[in-house]
Write a structure and sequence with these properties.
With 557 residues, the chain is an alpha/beta fold. The protein is 31% helix and 24% strand. It has three domains: 276 residues, 4-Layer Sandwich (Metallo-beta-lactamase, Chain A); 157 residues, Rossmann fold, CATH 3.40.50; 103 residues, Ubiquitin-like (UB roll) (Roll). It is built from 15 helices and 24 strands. Helix 6 crosses helix 7 and helix 9 runs parallel beside helix 10.
């Protein structure tokens, strides 16, 4: 019989950063390693990753990293994880292709890592443990559920799924694999919960088809559609309708072009060669009007909105929007993009652009609704349920769902990141300890975690700006040479606040006099005193706290 531990390093009580661990008799199986996008108050932070401290300590116990699908909230942290632990990775053909692209973007050679393509029919053996897969219906092709079979029953990880039947084969749920799993004992089901508050089944794409058909039928000239680059399913929908209306197709967007190219090369996006158009930069001879065309504007999060704004302001190098265009917005705001989405609408309306907003309710959900979750539970009949991929409001809704089908709520385990759920011989043990978890904030290409002090400085800069006090100092004669210079960025407009600037210079003179009266010039003490005195003066006068940067130049060097 097995000793099993279930815990998460990310993905519980939050949207993103999914990373779940199954530890069986000392062997560690990692299910996904994703990132989370930052909220607006995390200035300059590009991504939030799970803390890998635990898996780095247990790197020799890792049997593999098993990936469900290619969205960044599930694979975005894998490059950073592989820098920490060089473990084998398993995923579908499309998922591994996207991971290789992400590794190359990070300056890593995919050939240096053990990246294995698996099919939904494959079974991997790790001693007494076996890992196999089943395909799920999601917005990206070849999405997998992952099954970890132990002596005490199977642990089923079911992320990001629906049971939509109106999809291509690359998106179809493999019910035959679910039937195989259901014929065995299922110890625990780890099911996503993001859509648990939504009643009914996740609807099909028919309402989206109707909305797009109507928009294309009414469009007289060029059609511009915004889409998220990760939503391959919807992109193909738009392409199919454009082909039906005999339109040429142009796809723009830096991030999207790579993902779409991968999807095209692997056959997951199908575009007739004669319909695909490559755009050249706009100049005096070339305006890229493309009157009978579809222009797909794709990217991640804020990128489609940003590109549309550039297009309508005639700043983009490829497309300039005009009143004859029809713009179809297929990008409902996601957390953190609400402001730029609203601003984009305002800019488009102000310039009299014909706009078609695809209602969020018309877009087929990518996550299981309440009835989908009930269906999966009833198919698998698990002994225990652990809700994953969601916030606590979603976990609360899960309790309502399991009670509605007569499932014993005592056998549903709501965990936080780091909480360990142990099974001994198939029986859960009382919760006794947690694993240390946390967020790693990533800024650009930096690999290290950003400190709280850096974030605080960025917040101050965004609100109150910066003020620099620059002086040339002769430490031997203990005098200031020339004029003291004061520069303001984001704090005050200097020409309108000359009196305040002169007062800052006076503060400098007072501090300098005290420093020059000492036996020798202590540069560190001089800078700290100047920073403190100027900051105190500015707050007294303005009730604002800009970052004060003293720049004292030693003229003897």
């Amino acid at each position: 019989m097995a000793h099993i531990k279930l815990f998460a390093l990310g993905g519980l009580g939050e949207d993103g950063k999914n990373m779940y661990c199954v530890e069986i008799d000392g062997g560690l199986f990692i299910l996904d390693a994703g990132l989370k996008y930052p909220s607006q108050e995390l200035y300059g932070v590009d991504a939030i990753l799970p803390d890998f401290s635990y898996v780095k300590k247990r790197h020799q116990a890792i049997r593999g990293i098993f990936l469900s699908h290619g969205h960044e909230d599930h694979i975005g942290a894998v490059p950073a994880l592989l820098r920490a632990v060089n473990a084998p990775v398993y995923g579908s053909n499309f998922t591994i292709a996207l991971l290789k692209d992400a590794l190359q973007e990070q300056g890593m050679n995919p050939e240096d890592f053990a990246l294995h393509v698996v099919k939904k029919t494959d079974t991997l053996s790790f001693g007494k443990v076996r890992v196999n897969f089943y395909q799920t219906t999601h917005s990206i092709p070849e999405s997998f559920g992952i099954v970890v079979e132990t002596e005490d029953g199977a642990i089923v990880y079911a992320p990001d799924y629906t049971f939509d039947q109106n999809v291509d084969v690359a998106y179809q749920t493999s019910f035959e694999r679910l039937a195989d799993i259901a014929g065995k004992k299922v110890l625990a089901l780890l099911t996503e919960s993001l859509g648990s508050e939504r009643p009914g089944h996740s609807h099909t794409s028919r309402s989206l088809d109707q909305a797009l058909e109507k928009a294309f039928f009414n469009a007289e000239k060029r059609v511009v559609v915004s889409a998220f680059s990760t939503d391959i399913f919807r992109i193909q929908k738009v392409i199919d309708i454009a082909v039906k209306y005999d339109r040429t197709i142009a796809i723009i967007g830096r991030r999207a072009q790579r993902m779409v190219d991968i999807a095209i090369n692997l056959g997951y996006i199908k575009i007739p060669n004669e319909k695909l158009v490559t755009l050249k930069f706009i100049d005096e001879k070339n305006k890229n009007l493309l009157e009978n065309s579809l222009v797909l504007v794709t990217g991640d999060r804020h990128e489609p909105f940003h590109m549309l704004q550039r297009m309508v302001r005639k700043l983009d190098r490829l497309i300039h929007l005009n009143e004859s265009d029809t713009v179809i917005l297929m990008t409902p705001p996601v957390p953190g993009t609400e402001k730029i989405a609203a601003r984009t609408l305002d800019v488009l309306y102000r310039n009299d652009i014909s706009l078609v907003k695809i209602d969020k309710d018309a877009l087929p959900p990518s996550h299981a609704s309440s009835e989908d979750i009930k269906l999966l539970i009833n198919i698998l009949n698990p002994n225990h349920i652990v809700p994953v991929i969601g916030e606590h409001r979603h976990f609360f809704a899960m309790k309502t769902i399991v009670r509605a089908i007569g499932f014993d709520a005592e056998r549903m385990h709501v965990l936080d990141n780091g909480d360990v759920l142990e099974f001994e011989n198939g029986t859960p043990r009382p919760h006794v300890y947690s694993i240390t978890t946390g967020d790693v904030l990533v800024d650009g290409i930096l690999e290290g975690d950003l400190s709280e002090a850096v974030l605080k400085d960025r917040e101050i800069l965004s609100q109150d700006g910066v003020l620099m006090v620059i002086a040339n100092v002769d430490p031997k004669k203990k005098i200031t040479l020339g004029e003291v210079e004061v520069l303001s960025r984001g704090f005050v407009f200097m020409k309108e606040n000359e009196a305040l600037i002169q007062d800052v210079k006076a503060v400098y003179e007072r501090v300098a006099t005290k420093q020059f009266n000492a036996r020798y010039v202590d540069w560190r003490s001089f800078k700290e005193a100047l920073r403190d005195e100027v900051s105190r003066f500015l707050y007294h006068e303005t009730k604002r706290r800009p970052i004060v940067i003293p720049v004292l130049i030693d003229t003897q060097k």
